[in-house]
Design goal:
The structure is a single chain. The chain is an alpha+beta fold. The protein contains one helix and five strands; from the N terminus they run αβββββ. A five-stranded mixed barrel has the order 1-2-3-5-4. The protein is elongated and about 85 Å long.
Length: about 130
């Protein structure tokens, strides 16, 4: 390969890498069926025609109130992006169970959707020493 061929090959490689990067930022809407979901670990796999080999999903992208989990065999709609995630070529960025995609939730101020609790400890007064 001479210097000219090397420059062409490098240019072709640059275009190919740019195409891969562009595809990774694209999101595709699809529907599918939950293959498996590990409730205790908060992740699972969705199968659908637009995600050959399956699409990895984390509980944090499930658009529902309450406990966000899925069940094997459940039909879902989702947005996915091309990304390498635990051996899968696709990662879900939003998952919902109805026919209509729910609006994205916007956080306001310091509002948190995480669990919050408090603990208050109160101790009894120590007994008075007995007179000996």
């Amino acid at each position: 390969m001479d210097g000219g061929d090397s420059a062409v090959a490098a240019a072709d490689l640059g275009v190919a890498l740019r195409d891969v990067g562009a595809r990774q930022n694209e999101r595709m809407a699809s529907s599918g069926v939950v293959r498996t979901y590990h409730t205790d670990e908060g992740w699972g796999i969705i199968d659908g025609p637009g995600v050959p080999g399956g699409c990895w999903v984390h509980f944090s992208v499930i658009a529902m109130n309450g406990l966000r989990q899925l069940a094997a065999g459940q039909r879902v709609s989702f947005l996915a992006e091309a990304a390498t995630q635990d051996g899968f070529a696709y990662r879900a960025v939003k998952v919902w169970t109805g026919d209509t995609e729910p609006a994205d939730r916007r956080r306001t101020g310091t509002e948190s959707h995480a669990f919050h609790s408090t603990l208050t400890l109160t101790f009894d007064e120590p007994p008075e020493p007995s007179g000996r």
